[in-house]
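Troubleshooting entry. Yesterday's outputs looked truncated, so today I'm pasting the complete records for two proteins to confirm everything comes through intact. If either block looks cut off, that's the bug. Protein one:
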Amino acid sequence: MNGLTVRRLTSDDALQLASLLGAVAAPGPRVDRGSDPFAHPRATGDPLHVGAFCGDRLVAVVGAVAQQRHVGGVARRTVYLCDVRVASDFRGTFVLLPVLKVLREALSADSWSCAVVLEGNPMAKGLSSARWFGACRLLGRTRHVAWPAFLDVPPRAHRVEETDADTAAAAYFRLAPAHDLSPADEPRFRTGGRFFVERSGTRVVAVGKWVDERPARRIVADDRSFPAVAVLNLVARARRFPALPRPGASIALAYLSWFASERRAPPAGFARAVASLTRAATHVCFGVDAALAPPAHPLAHHFVSCTYGYGDVPSSLRMQSHELTWM
């Protein structure tokens, strides 16, 4: 398109990227990545964003993050596509085409990539059939769950305890390679968060991290987030949990991250046990296979996304790790 400049974004473009991400909201919860929108992608890998500028204004962007994930039992570089945005007055144009061309050239050494698309996204049909990065196929569906820990009585069956980074790392990297697409970056595993394990006798059978992503990524409450908030806050305070937020404030939630278990046990029980131990967040977020029955609670929030692979995706690859902090 005439009059456009297409280039890689730098840290000098952070405020423009933050403005475009905020102005063109994606489906799902309201997300605020603050004044440094590159911070959250940096937590999971090495990000690269390419944007189209009309004069000095950023009008379209596509991001990619080079991550280390387990594929077929070994750690492999995996490219995760993200942050596809087009300014409202440029929708219906071909502004994304030169952006995608430059990004694809930058990733020419990578034979495949993946992306997460929320069900209900108006661009879902196009993204699920896109050929920009090669042939597309569905790798799996994830149910994103925000569980109200402040109203929960966790099951007693889970013998979960806090531990140190070395113990957790040894357990995680013993269990996680069996879970395709699980994170495989040990330095990042050891950075931040709190570590927990579940034991059967002396054997560790599950492991995970308790992660608060703020301020790199905040989930913001709206008018519909918490009905009867005054009553719910009485319960939260009585049980020594943080208060629920007013509309426009961030929700005190945490993530069960880097979860791996023997026999691929689902994470709900482990997450609920950790939330009860920490009492640092009103909600604990975790991902589960959308094919399974959803964890049941009348005040749980959940929605579903699809993960697609593009290009020369390994034929045996199926999504077996539903890691929300890497989405």
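Protein two, checking that the full record survives here as well:
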Amino acid sequence: MYILGVSAYYHDSAAALIKDGKVIAAAEEERFTRVKHDNSFPFNAIDFCLRYAGIAINDVKYVAFYEKPLRKFERIIQTFVETYPFSYIPFWRAIPDWIINKLTIKSTIRKKLGYRGKILFVPHHEAHAASTFYPSPFNKAAILTVDGVGEWKTVGLYIGNRSDILPLKEIHFPSSLGLLYSTFTAFLGFKVNEDEWKVMGLAAYGKPRYYEKFKKIVDVDEDGSFSLNMKYFAFRESFRMWSKEIEKLFGRPRKPEDKINQKHADIAASLQKITEEIYIKILNHLYSLTRVKNLCIAGGVALNAVANGKIYSQTPFKRVFIQGAAGDSGAALGAALFVYHYLLRKKRNFVQRHLYFGPAYSNKYIKNFLDKVGAKYEFLEDSELIQKVATLLAKNKVVGWFRGRMEFGPRALGARSILANPKPKWMKDRVNEIKRRETFRPFAGSVLQEKVHEYFEVPERNHYSPFMIFAFKVKKEKRKNISAITHVDGTCRIQTVNSKDNGIYYDLIKEFYNITKIPVILNTSFNLRGEPIVCRPEEAYEDFIKTNMDYLVLENYLTYR
């Protein structure tokens, strides 16, 4: 049985295909259109999923959409009525998109895809919950979903038990932890639904001097329930996220072209502190409701790696699974899994240990391309390639690494990555220059599974964290060995790597360890600022040529200048 999950029309549109409950293909639309965070209907991603499976659209038993559009439109109408006349212009500008696209999803699937089977609409937060619980290793778990907003819900507390996901509590729009974070992402001159992790990185450079001011704009109870004071926000009735009252509290907002100063870092630190406080209180309350020590989390806020790193020390949860594609792209996967397990009552038979669900390209395809563009290259067998690239990394060369199936979700996990030696402190600036990123942004590290406890303050020996979604403190005595990826607050976002799940990528890090005695490498996504992660060899080569990256690996071909 094939089920196709689809998310579209907000941000990070995606498609995911499951076969008998197992994920076989998934990708974001942006990777094919090259429009970052593309929110259009994911025709290209759907086409990839079907081609990968070798099936036609009508071999799919169900198409599952990741939210209920009519319920969401109900919220839009009610918000318009409550905020009229201030919301008049934004509302009428939004209506054409609703009429043409968002309320005609079934028609789009029928007419443009030619699909004749059953179409089901899954509530947004249930899709998030399904995306993290069903692929988890737990038969029973507490579940938290937290994001900007679905139809009405912004936070959902659940308990998962085998094929059931049962709701416990929820928080509704306009009170939203995701929208709070996005409001200040915009206030600090960054892009909403795109640059929130820039704010998270900037927070480490500041002090939470504005924390008491944040307590004026968001009221938090001991159980983690919260409400935004809407006199400080304008996202319901205008094109701007905040009202003039925010500027009275915090002063002039930063323009994108303004230089970042200490005040901006302090605002980011204060925002991160209040976010973590709410997050941890919600989780502790969730535990009090469930008394289950297994935890699953999804939703855009679940990508806050710094907050995630504190779950083990500040809550009673002992085992935590966070969907690596925690945002709306992952909800496409969740919609499909919700239909299979919750609606059809099928038993669970899949544990997600990686996110390599995208396209791959053969050596033959790559050789033809490299010959066509006149590239300089050499072909190396896997063992030769590992030895050569590990040696290059040890010599402080920066290498683009393009191997196997592309990752699903926002993180590069060793399939579409830029790799470097984590030891020299200056390497951070070098790679930021290559990627054309802001200098304050930190880099993640890929670490050998069996060595993670030697370098990081993880909750257990051989801690398993495959999706680069937790930030942990770097042990003080090891910071000199990985100074390029140790953030100013002493943390590092990590990806644990093992032979079974990561194959040749594990072998590469192991060889780097053999040479340097450092079991960690700097790993960042293979893209330049403003671009999606590369999907095809052509895009990888173009980025290689446009920058001063030293080498490029395309499957078994080592390309150089």
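Both blocks look complete. Sanity check on protein two: The longest helix spans residues 262-290.
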